[in-house]
User: Fold these one by one.
Assistant:
Number 1:
Amino acid sequence: MTDSHWTVGPDGAGARLDKFLAAADRLGSRGRAVAALERGKVFLNGVEAAPSNAATHLAAGDLVRVWMDRPGSARRRPGAIARRDLGIIFEDDALVVLNKPAGLLAVPLERRSGAPSAYDRILDHLRSRGKARPLVVHRIDRDTSGLVVFARNARAQHVLKDQFRQHEPERVYRAVVYGHPDPPEGTWRDHLAWHPAALIQKKANARDRGAREAISDYRVIETLRGASLVEVRLQTGKQNQKRIQAQLRGHSLVGERRYVPETEQPRPIPFPRQALHAYRLAFRHPIDDRLLQFEAPLPDDLVNLIARLRRR
């Protein structure tokens, strides 16, 4: 096999890219699939797939190509390693999707001058290749891990920001919260107002100046000892929305420092940050309008936290 193409059918929709490639009638094993990704031999919809794209879930109609004898691909490609180290899981001429680690700002903040950010990392990455600077589309909190998208040009930024303003993208978070939400799934609806001096959201009356409606769907994934692993799907996207809505219902995030109950938890669970991860992000490509879907697995600190709470 030197150059093979497959169009994803209904049976393959939802499969991970690496598992799709590992099928017996394609590359035949996951090891061969991983090696092909590491050596820059795999393309998804015409864009080179990095090793970090292995977990990308395919959609019906996606075009997967394996170019086995691609010139210069006999060894692992340095560029692919660099993208993986940066946390980049998708990149083309219009946008960059990053799996941001906790503790790193998404974009530089004036009040935190000199603090490192995901934006700065992508800027250095693009400059090293003679490319234009990234453009901000949205952001997540410094101590929240997970998916963030940046635009590569003004047209893409305009289209993507408009999608986010219209609440079109699918934005799904996973969090560990105190207690056990009852019922185990439902919808949180609040009116919130941002207080710029305190830099926090506060519960507001619908008639209050600056009040905005905040809506989130939640469901309990797993009940733990003293806590729960929950999934939160945003219908709106207000700053710190998930954190304050959980706190308002007596289920503050484990590790939360800003939105905490008036009385502290009787037995706080040690964790150095809010236990929140931007797990899934889906939106329409700003140029060709195809649906892009990404998932970022839980980072090690959250995996270890959940394991610890299972044993308690």
Number 2:
Amino acid sequence: MSWSFDDTRRHLGRVAFSALLFGAVVVLGQVPFGAPVEDAFLRLALRTTEARIEICRDRTHAELEALPAHMRQPQICDWHIVPHRLLVRRGAETVLDRVLEPAGARSDRPLAFDEQIALAPGTAELAISFEPAEAVIASASGALAVALAEAPRHAISRTIELQAGRIVLVRLDGDGGTLVIDG
């Protein structure tokens, strides 16, 4: 098989066309589309299993005797998923105030919240709290009231610089269960 001048021209034409197409894609990739973003964003990505409170009690001897042998567990445990209140403030302004309810058919799923909030750029004093809802605490009694009093409460307050077009992430640290602001 021999290589002719026409084959060389065709090959160079294909290379030149590919280079032009690649250059056009690069140039068009640099062209801004739409209006520039003027807001800064606060993304809240929280997920916790700490909202599950388990309360156990020992069965009495009479209760154990009344049960068939294969059902004689020495303890009875009930669990509750506690709704939590998420409060976000920027200075004196309340940006978000929401009670998070457990999901699932039996309300047994972990509490999860993932939302992005647009904020005006600039220096901001953010105060964020994530704790059991007051209504649940007020209505609780007995062992549940004691467990709710000891339930973890998360709060963070920090001054940050919100920049237009940038996202600041707020999350629960998986290890210690503390609120963290990234950004």
